[in-house]
What does this fold into?
Amino acid sequence: MIEKLEGRFLVTFLAVLEEKSFSKAAERLGYVQSTVTSQMRQLEEAAGQKLFDRLPRGVELTGAGRKLEIYARRFVQLGRELEEQMNEEGAPRGIVRLRVLESFAAAALWGPLRSFMEAYPDIEVQIEAGFQAETLEAVRSRQADMGLVPADPCAADLAFDPLLEDELLWIAAPREAEAVCREGWSAVRRMRIAGFGERCMYSHAAEAQLAAQRTAPAGRAEFASMDMIKRAAGSGWALALVPRSAVAAELAAGVLAECVPLGRQPICHGLIRHKQREAGRAAQLLHRYLLGCGMKEVMIE
It folds into this structure.
């Protein structure tokens, strides 16, 4: 099989997997669609098995395709590491794939990242957003070199390097926050709770606190972005449990207020990486840079 494989076929295979479409993969790689189709046909011939199922909404990996994915990601990673090694004598260059939590990245990542890009213009940082469980899987499966998560996953195969201490706090519009200050947890029974849903650590923390207080809100709402959650809370429509770092500007401006009687919960954002996998030079540089700057641009009161 190895004699029939070409590296570009595996790169195309991963593009089809990630885009879930032959046409979108072709657009991403700068190919015509017939080239992608031809490469995948040759790859299936080399594997001796069907790799993709065509569905109305796109394409999906078969069981054989899922097996190939593991080795394809290893191959591409080795190629990147080899390129970095060949360029080691010159200016640092390469690609670093970073998974982040959207709410934290929006508040804290872009300043340090811009400084890093200015210091290392030949290193490309590719960023994707995801919740903690998705980020852990991305690092394990080589879809990401490292991840930014809101808590130590305490996983045997992953190293966690603390980056920034933060805290979860309940926020609302000033008028609703005053009601909570007067009535405590009982006020929550007539209010909605806004969050990211069951995949999010913040939502799990909120539900745990509600269960501990033996209370339930009047309703729950799930949103895809921190901006929507903040706007829902600022309008008086809902309460939300969020990191202080994500709402520091709104608290300072008086657009949002803390529901003090509901308490706070300390958290620590950090970087995760795979213990058994040596990172490339570019990833090592970004890792050291982020730890060194400590995201000090975000101040936690």
